Structures are given as C-alpha cells and as structure tokens.
Amino acid sequence: MINSLSQSRRRFLTTVGASALTIPTLTDVLGRPLQTEAGQPGRKLGVALVGLGYYSKNLLAPALQQTQHCRLAGIVTGTPAKAEEWKQKYNISQANVYDYKTFDRIIDNKDIDVVYVVLPNNMHREFVVRAAQAGKHVICEKPMAITVADCQAMIDACKKANRQLAIGYRLHYEPFTQEVMRLGQQKVFGPVKFIESSDGFRSGDPNQWRLKKAMAGGGPLMDVGIYAVQGARYVTGEEPISVTAQFSPKTDPQKFKEVEETMFWQFRFPSGAVSNSTTSYASGVERLYASCQDGWFELSPAFGYGPLKGRTSKGPIEKPVVNHQAAHMDGVCKDLIDGKKLPDHITGEEGLRDVRLLQAIYRAAETGRTIDLKA
Amino acid sequence: MINSLSQSRRRFLTTVGASALTIPTLTDVLGRPLQTEAGQPGRKLGVALVGLGYYSKNLLAPALQQTQHCRLAGIVTGTPAKAEEWKQKYNISQANVYDYKTFDRIIDNKDIDVVYVVLPNNMHREFVVRAAQAGKHVICEKPMAITVADCQAMIDACKKANRQLAIGYRLHYEPFTQEVMRLGQQKVFGPVKFIESSDGFRSGDPNQWRLKKAMAGGGPLMDVGIYAVQGARYVTGEEPISVTAQFSPKTDPQKFKEVEETMFWQFRFPSGAVSNSTTSYASGVERLYASCQDGWFELSPAFGYGPLKGRTSKGPIEKPVVNHQAAHMDGVCKDLIDGKKLPDHITGEEGLRDVRLLQAIYRAAETGRTIDLKA
Q: Where is the Gfo/Idh/MocA-like oxidoreductase N-terminal domain (chains A, B) (predicted)?
C-alpha cells in the first residue's frame, strides 16, 4: 500500500513498523521508499466510492466483491438513506461513511487508500482535488472533467500530493479490447487505414443530469462518444491531427435543449488512417471496426459492460470474459500496491487528451471547420 | 416480349402472327395491346451486353447462363479479339455482334430485346439513348450517368421510344436486401433512427478509367458509395432532406489526382432518421446497419456480389442465397415479358435520384455547407 504524503510517516510508524525496514526497498513513482504491505501479502487496498448512483451501485460495488487487490471500504454520499442501505449491505462501518461536507476528514482514515469519484462530470475536479489533498490515490470516472483546465488542475493536485490519478478506462484491462489494440498497433493485418467507431444509446429519463450542460459538459459525446474517440486512438496507437464534426438536427428539442442529441466526427491520423464516428442519445449503436491494408477486425459490442464480441477477417476473436470493473480496479490497485507508475493510457494525462479532443469535436461542429489538433 | 414502337407492327405481322389475336389481350405500359410470347412460353428475351469488361465477363455473362427469362444473345465491343472469344464461348452468331459504330443496326435484330450498357459511366448516356432509339429496352449499370442532365436525357429518350429503362440495381432482387427493406420500411423494430452504411475497397490498377474524373464522374462515391446511399434510402424508404459531407485528405495524391480517395457524408431524413456513411478506394468497408427504436438490424457484407450476411437484435437473418445478376436480369425481363411497368425503385427515375444525391454530396463536401435537398 502506498500512503499519502501526509500520512506516510504516521502510518510508517504505527502500522508497518520497523519490520518494513528489513524487506527489499520498493520506491514510489518519485523514487522515494515505499511503505508496502509486503508484510501483509493478502491485504487489499481500501476503496471509497464517492457518489452512489447507478454505476457505483450496479457495477462498482458488485465488482469490488470480486476484486483481489482492493475492496469496498468506504462510501461518500449526500443521501443518508443510501448510506444506511450500503452500510448494511456491504458491512461498512460508520467511521468509513462520509458526506460531501465531511469528506475531507478521510485524510485520517487509514482504511481508505483509494477514492473513486463517480459523481456528475462537473464535480470531478473538486472531488479529485480534495481526495488528493486528503492523501488518497484517485480513480475518476470518464470523462475526466468538462474542461481541459479542470483536467490540468486535477493532474496538478495529484502531482503536488504525490498521489496517482487513474481515469475509469476499464476497457484497457478488458481482453477483447486489448486484442484489438494489439491487432491495430502491431499492424497484424497491416497498417490501419480506416476506423468506424460509434457509441450511442436511447437515453431515458429526461430529467437526468447527463442532459444538463452545466453538469455533463455536453451530451452523448461526453458520455459515450468518448469511447469511440478512445477506440480510434487505441486501435491506431496514434493521436489524431485534425477533426471535422457535425451536429445532427434534434428530433426532440425539448429533451435535448442543452446538449446535442446525435453527432458525427471524423479524425485524421498521422499515418494517413482516418476514422468516422457517431454518438447519440437517440439511437443504439456500438461498434469498433478497423479496416487494415490486409484485412479487418471488429468489436461489436465494443464499449459496453460486456461481454464484448469480436471477429477479424480471419475468424472470431476468442478471449476470456472478465468483469470489466473488477479487472480495472484490480489492475490499478495492483500497480499502486507494487509502487509502479500507472500506465500512461489510463492516467489523468490520457483523460486530458480525450477531453481536449471532445472539446475540439464540439468546436469543429460549431464552426463547420476542420480543427487542427497539432497546434 | 414488348417490341419497339418502330418494330412492333412489323414483328406483329411477321413473328407472332394472327394467333396472338386469340389470346387474352395484355397491354404495354401505355395501355396498348402487347405482342406477347404467349404462344412461345419458353422463349427468353435476348440480351445484348454493351462493353465486355470485368462485370460483363465475370458476372453478367455467367449469370445469363442461369436466367429463366433472358439469355445472352448479343455483344457490343470495340475489341475484335474479345468478340471472337465471346462468340465461341457463348455460341453467339456473327449477326449478333456489333461494335460501337455498327451498334445502331441492332434496330433490325429481332434476337435482341434488351440492351445492357456496361460501359464507363460517361458513356452511359450515349448508349442508352442509342439503344432506346434502336427500339430496345435498356438496362444501364450504376451510377446511371455522371450528371443529372444526362440522366434526364436518358429517361426522355426511353420515354420517347416507349422503351423501359432499368438501372443495374441488382440488390432490389436480392433476398437479404429485400428483408432489410421490409424490416426498415415496415418498422418491424419500430421507426429507423440511425443508419451507418459504408462501402469501400482498396482500389488496384492506378490506370483504370474509374480514377479518371471525365469517365467516372468521381471516385469511390460514384462507384460504390452509391450503394451506401441506396442502403440508407431503401432501409428508411425515405428521401433525404439534407446532407453534409467531408473529403478525407488523400494519402496517395498521385493515384487520386482526379477523384476523391475517401469521403464521408451524413443524411437527414424527413422522419428524423439520420445516417452516417463512408466510401473509399483506400479501405475495405461494407456494412449497412440500422438502429431502430426497439432493436437493430445489419447486413455485412451488404453490397457485394454475395453471399450477403445479416443479423438483427433478435437473431440471424436466414434467406436463400441467389445469383444477384441472374435475379436482377430475370426480374426485369419477367416484367418486360409480362408488359408490366418496372418497379419505380429500379428505373431511370431512381437512377436520377441517386445521381442527384451523389452530386449534392460532392457539393456539400466542396463547400463545407449543409445542402438542402428539398429544394
């Protein structure tokens, strides 16, 4: 376990004790000696979920019952009834329950190593910064934030606190997705020439925060279009150099008063590869297709919670089906336990790259211009 | 068999004879009595292929060995060696062989009922008009022509000659395609909301006529993009009301000096349905996907010579595999034999609608503007 800067000394003295000095010295990302749980090999990192909405309730909490390297240790919620329900269901002590005002006291809670921020997009910045300042490593749901400036502030706060920041990019730990990354980036079917990646679904409740621009930062592009952006990026292994984009006219202008209903965008990559993508809150679509010089490969479904399904011009992709959320949290926590720097493609830097692209897509659609991304 | 205006009387007197007067009177599209082959139930319409390139040689001629209502009766070619080869291979008499200069004499050839124009796009107009003036029904490969004015001239010429004009829309006779038309137009999964339809392939020979703008009228959009346009139209059963489009930068500017290499376009339909499409001579992609209110359906491959493959949110689409070209020519010729007006969606009017859309897509991409198609 890596502790917060402020807690590390105290924990070192009280929890790990002198015995830690006798084990091989691991170091943290800055090369400083790491207080590992080497003396407690079975110990799991304690995760606190901030925000107990659908994703926490139905995906993360159940996944945390399957994880090997972390466990559900705490919750942060503004709804007392939810706190009660979760305490009972997951056997969480009152000491590990916070609301949004008491949250900062988590600095003193040695049960909590990682804070997972699962709040509306516009609250990510505040709670990631507060979590880092409380000495916790942070996982933050995608999109990382609603502006590039927010992303940068979050990265800076974690750096300053010497904590690591992961974004909820669960698919980087998902075997079918890892396979298409390999097929594309290693040019197994030759260079990737064209990608069709789309993600959309029919959005229900017209009052949800995801339809409010101030909270979500945008519509389906921010929510699920980001997967299509990720898909084009991780299949090519490249950063797009320009983008064009189009808003589709709204068929339900009342529901989509503040955010786009459906939109399209096209990336150009340095290698010459191009992509065409759609995102929508009006239509279901979920596919990642890559046309290469000597063949093709496809995931469909490509971005949902699984199981994913894949095929190539040579036949089906066969991979184990995993719990995406468990694989993601275990992957992050294993690296934290081992004192490793998290892989770049799941960090805040990656989150910022995506948010920058999402903003460029909106700008391209608003202006009707090709936006140069090299600048 | 329906004869040309100029020939009908002669044929009536010499071929069918008085016996035709004793059978129930069928009428042609204008209500005039029809000279049927009722007395010769097994007779097949004679088809002459104009242009003996890849499609004629490898698809149409073999298909005409399987057809029930037509047969390969003549050829029109500028290459004497090809004429010899075909005469022998298909047992075609010298009297039924023409070159581009002697072609008009086909007016006197009672073996030939239908002329199928399989020439480069810019030659379609001339040979369709000449065929109609020679009293023949005409099938013309897609795209119908390279300008809307050409299409209109072709329609007018056939109308004036009282001949029918079909475009090479083979997929309208293909069972998987007919099924997705039904699923979409009859709203089997509820209204269609979004369509992703794309068609592209890696183009070979850099010297082929398809890369020359004067002959092809454009690049992959004219050649295969038209299938993606058709797909969006026949799944919705609607005509698009606006379009945006984008050229992708060329990765091989030498090869694609005259025409686009890859491009994208987005249609909006009156019902609110939208589509996003890609066509390319640089990348293989071939799919027609429809997202509906209560499910989805897909063909992939969707536009090639078959077999096509389809699935829906409820399971696979199971349909008989047919020879596309045989089904198409048989369907057209059966209607001609029966004196029926050809279905609107395979006529010159449909061809013109597509060419008008192709031109609008180019205009949208060139100007960066949304092109209003209602005007």
A: 46-169
Which residues of chain A have a CB within 8 Å of the CB of B283? 193-194, 291
Note the pLDDT of residue B42.
Answer: 62
Per residue in B31-54, pLDDT (tens digit) is 444 444 433 556 799 999 999 999
CA angle A3, A72, A99 (to 5 degrees): 85
The residue from B44, B142, B281, B289 that is catalytic is: B142
* Domains of chain A as residue ranges with CATH: 5-171+327-345 (3.40.50.720), 172-321+355-372 (3.30.360.10)
Nearest by CB to residue A276, choosing from B251, B278, B282, is B278
- B362 among known catalytic residues: no
Residues in A whose CB is inside 8 Å of some CB of B read: 193-194, 196, 198, 200, 202, 242, 244, 246, 248-249, 251, 262, 264, 266, 268, 272, 274, 276, 278, 280, 282-285, 287, 289, 291, 293, 296, 368-369
Q: pLDDT tens-digit profile of B298-355?
A: 999 999 999 999 999 999 999 999 999 999 999 999 999 999 999 999 999 999 999 9
Q: Do A266 and B264 touch (CB under 8 A)?
A: yes
B305 assigned to active site: no
Here the ipTM equals: 0.86
Mutation pick from A283, A297, A312 vs chain B, by most beta carbons of B within 10 Å, is A283
Which of B247, B251, B261, B283 is the best residue to mutate to test the A interface, defined by the most A CB atoms within 10 Å of its own CB? B283
